[in-house]
Amino acid sequence: MNxxxxxREIYVGNIKxxxxxxxxxxxxxxxxxITCSSTFDTPPESLVIGxxxxxxxxxxxxxxxxxxxKE
Amino acid sequence: MQEKNKRISDVxxxxxxxxxxxxxxxxxxxYKLKPFSRALAVQREVAIFLGDEGNFNYNTxxxxxxxxxxxxEETVKTTFINELETIKTENVYIxxxxxxxxxxxxxxxxxESEARIKHFRQLxxxxxx
Lengths: 71, 129
Prior knowledge:
The structure holds 2 protein chains of 2 kinds. By secondary structure, chain A is mainly β.
Protein backbone atom coordinates (compact mmCIF):
# COMPACT_ATOMS: atom_id res chain seq x y z
CA MET A 1 0.00 0.00 0.00
CA ASN A 2 1.22 3.49 -0.77
CA UNK A 3 0.52 6.32 1.63
CA UNK A 4 1.38 9.86 0.63
CA UNK A 5 1.37 12.79 3.03
CA UNK A 6 1.42 16.30 1.64
CA UNK A 7 2.49 18.90 4.22
CA ARG A 8 1.33 22.33 3.18
CA GLU A 9 1.77 25.55 5.13
CA ILE A 10 1.69 25.51 8.93
CA TYR A 11 1.64 28.92 10.56
CA VAL A 12 0.60 29.07 14.21
CA GLY A 13 0.30 32.35 16.11
CA ASN A 14 0.19 31.66 19.83
CA ILE A 15 0.33 28.41 21.78
CA LYS A 16 -0.41 28.37 25.49
CA UNK A 17 0.05 25.10 27.33
CA UNK A 18 -0.70 24.69 31.02
CA UNK A 19 1.07 21.40 31.37
CA UNK A 20 2.78 18.79 29.25
CA UNK A 21 1.78 15.83 31.38
CA UNK A 22 3.70 12.76 32.41
CA UNK A 23 5.40 10.93 29.58
CA UNK A 24 3.93 13.10 26.83
CA UNK A 25 5.39 15.08 23.96
CA UNK A 26 4.85 18.56 22.55
CA UNK A 27 6.70 18.61 19.27
CA UNK A 28 7.14 21.42 16.78
CA UNK A 29 8.85 19.54 14.01
CA UNK A 30 9.00 16.16 12.30
CA UNK A 31 9.55 12.75 13.79
CA UNK A 32 9.76 9.09 12.83
CA UNK A 33 8.75 7.07 15.88
CA ILE A 34 7.21 8.22 19.14
CA THR A 35 6.56 5.77 21.98
CA CYS A 36 5.21 7.16 25.23
CA SER A 37 4.41 4.82 28.08
CA SER A 38 3.55 5.34 31.70
CA THR A 39 2.20 3.47 34.68
CA PHE A 40 0.19 5.22 37.32
CA ASP A 41 -0.87 3.28 40.38
CA THR A 42 -3.32 4.61 42.93
CA PRO A 43 -4.67 1.42 44.51
CA PRO A 44 -7.26 1.54 47.33
CA GLU A 45 -4.60 0.42 49.79
CA SER A 46 -2.57 3.49 48.97
CA LEU A 47 -5.05 5.36 51.17
CA VAL A 48 -4.01 4.92 54.79
CA ILE A 49 -6.18 6.43 57.52
CA GLY A 50 -4.64 6.58 60.96
CA UNK A 51 -1.20 7.30 62.26
CA UNK A 52 1.18 8.81 59.76
CA UNK A 53 3.89 6.22 59.27
CA UNK A 54 7.00 6.49 57.14
CA UNK A 55 7.08 4.55 53.87
CA UNK A 56 9.16 1.34 53.88
CA UNK A 57 12.79 2.25 53.54
CA UNK A 58 15.26 1.32 50.86
CA UNK A 59 16.37 -1.88 52.59
CA UNK A 60 12.93 -3.37 52.97
CA UNK A 61 12.33 -6.15 50.49
CA UNK A 62 8.68 -6.86 51.27
CA UNK A 63 7.24 -3.93 49.37
CA UNK A 64 5.67 -6.29 46.85
CA UNK A 65 3.80 -8.18 49.55
CA UNK A 66 2.16 -4.98 50.62
CA UNK A 67 1.35 -4.19 47.04
CA UNK A 68 -1.73 -6.41 47.27
CA UNK A 69 -4.07 -6.79 44.35
CA LYS A 70 -1.28 -6.70 41.81
CA GLU A 71 -0.18 -9.79 39.89
CA MET B 1 22.35 20.92 5.93
CA GLN B 2 18.72 19.99 6.15
CA GLU B 3 17.96 16.31 6.23
CA LYS B 4 15.64 14.88 3.64
CA ASN B 5 11.97 14.89 4.66
CA LYS B 6 12.59 16.95 7.78
CA ARG B 7 11.33 20.48 7.96
CA ILE B 8 12.78 23.51 9.75
CA SER B 9 11.00 24.66 12.89
CA ASP B 10 10.82 28.42 13.30
CA VAL B 11 9.60 29.69 16.69
CA UNK B 12 9.86 33.37 17.58
CA UNK B 13 9.39 33.30 21.36
CA UNK B 14 9.46 30.53 23.94
CA UNK B 15 8.66 30.84 27.62
CA UNK B 16 8.68 27.78 29.85
CA UNK B 17 8.22 28.22 33.58
CA UNK B 18 9.16 24.79 34.88
CA UNK B 19 11.03 21.73 33.63
CA UNK B 20 11.41 18.91 36.10
CA UNK B 21 11.87 15.18 36.75
CA UNK B 22 13.62 13.90 33.66
CA UNK B 23 11.78 16.23 31.29
CA UNK B 24 13.42 17.56 28.18
CA UNK B 25 13.33 20.96 26.52
CA UNK B 26 15.15 20.48 23.25
CA UNK B 27 15.81 23.25 20.74
CA UNK B 28 17.35 21.94 17.57
CA UNK B 29 17.32 18.57 15.87
CA UNK B 30 17.93 15.36 17.76
CA TYR B 31 18.19 11.69 16.95
CA LYS B 32 16.84 9.87 19.99
CA LEU B 33 15.27 11.03 23.24
CA LYS B 34 14.60 8.49 25.96
CA PRO B 35 13.55 10.11 29.24
CA PHE B 36 12.75 7.83 32.16
CA SER B 37 11.45 8.72 35.58
CA ARG B 38 10.10 6.97 38.65
CA ALA B 39 8.18 8.66 41.45
CA LEU B 40 6.57 7.90 44.75
CA ALA B 41 3.85 10.50 45.16
CA VAL B 42 3.05 10.87 48.83
CA GLN B 43 0.22 13.04 50.09
CA ARG B 44 -0.10 13.48 53.84
CA GLU B 45 -2.62 15.36 55.91
CA VAL B 46 0.26 16.35 58.13
CA ALA B 47 3.20 17.59 56.14
CA ILE B 48 5.89 15.37 57.62
CA PHE B 49 8.33 14.04 55.05
CA LEU B 50 11.50 12.19 55.99
CA GLY B 51 14.29 12.32 53.49
CA ASP B 52 15.17 8.64 53.44
CA GLU B 53 11.82 6.85 53.31
CA GLY B 54 10.35 4.82 50.49
CA ASN B 55 11.74 2.46 47.87
CA PHE B 56 11.05 1.45 44.28
CA ASN B 57 10.50 -2.21 45.10
CA TYR B 58 6.90 -2.22 43.86
CA ASN B 59 5.39 -3.90 40.84
CA THR B 60 4.55 -0.49 39.42
CA UNK B 61 8.26 0.06 38.88
CA UNK B 62 9.07 -3.45 37.68
CA UNK B 63 6.26 -4.65 35.45
CA UNK B 64 6.68 -4.45 31.72
CA UNK B 65 4.48 -1.88 30.04
CA UNK B 66 2.74 -3.57 27.10
CA UNK B 67 2.90 -1.79 23.77
CA UNK B 68 0.30 -2.14 21.05
CA UNK B 69 1.43 -4.41 18.27
CA UNK B 70 0.49 -4.09 14.67
CA UNK B 71 0.48 -7.18 12.56
CA UNK B 72 0.02 -5.88 9.08
CA GLU B 73 0.31 -8.34 6.27
CA GLU B 74 1.20 -5.74 3.73
CA THR B 75 3.92 -3.17 4.07
CA VAL B 76 2.95 0.48 3.82
CA LYS B 77 5.22 2.65 1.75
CA THR B 78 4.95 6.15 3.09
CA THR B 79 5.99 9.22 1.17
CA PHE B 80 6.15 12.74 2.57
CA ILE B 81 5.90 15.76 0.33
CA ASN B 82 6.79 18.95 2.17
CA GLU B 83 5.56 21.85 0.11
CA LEU B 84 7.01 24.32 2.59
CA GLU B 85 10.32 23.85 4.34
CA THR B 86 9.30 25.54 7.59
CA ILE B 87 6.84 25.03 10.44
CA LYS B 88 6.28 28.57 11.66
CA THR B 89 5.09 29.39 15.17
CA GLU B 90 5.13 32.80 16.82
CA ASN B 91 4.79 32.43 20.59
CA VAL B 92 4.84 29.37 22.83
CA TYR B 93 4.10 29.59 26.53
CA ILE B 94 4.28 26.48 28.69
CA UNK B 95 3.67 26.50 32.41
CA UNK B 96 5.23 23.17 33.22
CA UNK B 97 6.75 20.00 31.82
CA UNK B 98 5.97 17.02 34.07
CA UNK B 99 7.87 13.80 34.58
CA UNK B 100 9.44 12.34 31.44
CA UNK B 101 7.74 14.81 29.13
CA UNK B 102 9.30 16.56 26.16
CA UNK B 103 9.01 19.95 24.51
CA UNK B 104 10.94 19.72 21.29
CA UNK B 105 11.50 22.45 18.73
CA UNK B 106 13.10 20.84 15.72
CA UNK B 107 13.01 17.44 14.17
CA UNK B 108 13.79 14.10 15.73
CA UNK B 109 13.89 10.43 14.82
CA UNK B 110 12.93 8.45 17.89
CA UNK B 111 11.22 9.34 21.15
CA GLU B 112 10.75 6.73 23.86
CA SER B 113 9.50 8.20 27.09
CA GLU B 114 8.58 6.28 30.20
CA ALA B 115 7.21 7.35 33.57
CA ARG B 116 6.14 5.28 36.55
CA ILE B 117 4.27 6.78 39.47
CA LYS B 118 2.89 5.17 42.62
CA HIS B 119 0.62 7.07 44.93
CA PHE B 120 0.28 7.07 48.69
CA ARG B 121 -2.25 9.02 50.72
CA GLN B 122 -2.09 9.21 54.46
CA LEU B 123 -4.96 10.81 56.36
CA UNK B 124 -5.46 11.19 60.09
CA UNK B 125 -9.18 10.58 60.59
CA UNK B 126 -12.15 9.15 58.73
CA UNK B 127 -14.82 11.55 60.08
CA UNK B 128 -14.28 14.41 57.68
CA UNK B 129 -17.80 14.18 56.21
